[in-house]
């Protein structure tokens, strides 16, 4: 019993420690997001270069017809080309290549297939109203992939060179970017350990690749708020774990829980953590709440980056925008189910929404929790925060406003 008590105390202590350890990479990232060149000390594994990319185009008769974006299912349609670059401990980085989309040659013992030495990114390219193509804050995706690479013990590289490679691939595939203000080209950088040996050990071989998918509107039926299933017996991330990284191993086990939610008539999973049932994320989105606080002020609340939360690019952007607007008090803190129940009872929970690259924002209408259904009036607000966020971000994505977050591809 005594040792159990100690374990619980430790668990409670960990988030604060993780929070301080989280601050360090965030500061280092700010430096690395500038366009300066990297020293060999910062990039012990060297780097590949965008200017070295070798391009092999798909034969014209093999190019696919472009799909109707209205009927696209997320992540099923791929463009004609992909980017790959391989790394070997002895030979270091190989030649970066853009080549016809195709299967990977991979050894059956490759570490990715056994121990999930894998991480990925999710970003988008948008065709603006001015016809120009933009990425959104790609430097933040680079910070995250490099932090993940360190955790997975895969080699680092110069993030600006990788952005250069992404731009080259997107430019070649630009015809695939829908001419639509609700659609985009989804970019999936993927990083795998390919060492052909079964030891649970660091990988002496790696492959970094990029595949692209045209994506239509995330919600076919418009912005319909989603219902959530929250069951404290399922945990997505834990202190000392990797829930704050986009490692593939975090996602496979969630499919079962998502199916459980669907079987119970709910659309998405609300991930809880701890004895006090803290709300952490929705599906693969960060969560936000708009509440009327005890002082009568409107307050935006999102859980802090305490190791349990994936540091979303959209999350940072929602916080940055709302801070700039100065219309709301902004708080990064833990929020529990008991508090959500209390706020709802007092009619002080105004909005709840998820935020992520795939859907941008996703309003929530209810939470199904331990046999109770909690209704959330997100869709009933007059000028909801989530809509203002969505409209502003869309204006940046599609070049309706000139903003430094929109990064031109050419
Ligand atoms: C990718 C992801 C997000 C959102 O991150 P963005 O950078 O905004 O797309 C949030 N939560 C989880 C668990 C994720 O995997």
UniProtKB/TrEMBL annotation:
<keyword id="KW-0100">Branched-chain amino acid biosynthesis</keyword>
<keyword id="KW-0032">Aminotransferase</keyword>
<dbReference type="GO" id="GO:0052655">
    <property type="term" value="F:L-valine-2-oxoglutarate transaminase activity"/>
</dbReference>
<dbReference type="GO" id="GO:0009099">
    <property type="term" value="P:L-valine biosynthetic process"/>
</dbReference>
<dbReference type="InterPro" id="IPR033939">
    <property type="entry name" value="BCAT_family"/>
</dbReference>
<feature type="modified residue" description="N6-(pyridoxal phosphate)lysine">
    <location>
        <position position="246"/>
    </location>
</feature>
<protein>
    <recommendedName>
        <fullName>Branched-chain-amino-acid aminotransferase</fullName>
        <ecNumber>2.6.1.42</ecNumber>
    </recommendedName>
</protein>
<dbReference type="GO" id="GO:0052654">
    <property type="term" value="F:L-leucine-2-oxoglutarate transaminase activity"/>
</dbReference>
<dbReference type="InterPro" id="IPR043131">
    <property type="entry name" value="BCAT-like_N"/>
</dbReference>
<dbReference type="GO" id="GO:0005739">
    <property type="term" value="C:mitochondrion"/>
</dbReference>
<dbReference type="InterPro" id="IPR005786">
    <property type="entry name" value="B_amino_transII"/>
</dbReference>
<dbReference type="GO" id="GO:0052656">
    <property type="term" value="F:L-isoleucine-2-oxoglutarate transaminase activity"/>
</dbReference>
<dbReference type="GO" id="GO:0009098">
    <property type="term" value="P:L-leucine biosynthetic process"/>
</dbReference>
<dbReference type="InterPro" id="IPR001544">
    <property type="entry name" value="Aminotrans_IV"/>
</dbReference>
<keyword id="KW-0663">Pyridoxal phosphate</keyword>
<dbReference type="InterPro" id="IPR043132">
    <property type="entry name" value="BCAT-like_C"/>
</dbReference>
<dbReference type="Pfam" id="PF01063">
    <property type="entry name" value="Aminotran_4"/>
</dbReference>
<comment type="similarity">
    <text>Belongs to the class-IV pyridoxal-phosphate-dependent aminotransferase family.</text>
</comment>
<dbReference type="InterPro" id="IPR036038">
    <property type="entry name" value="Aminotransferase-like"/>
</dbReference>
<keyword id="KW-0028">Amino-acid biosynthesis</keyword>
<keyword id="KW-0808">Transferase</keyword>
<dbReference type="InterPro" id="IPR018300">
    <property type="entry name" value="Aminotrans_IV_CS"/>
</dbReference>
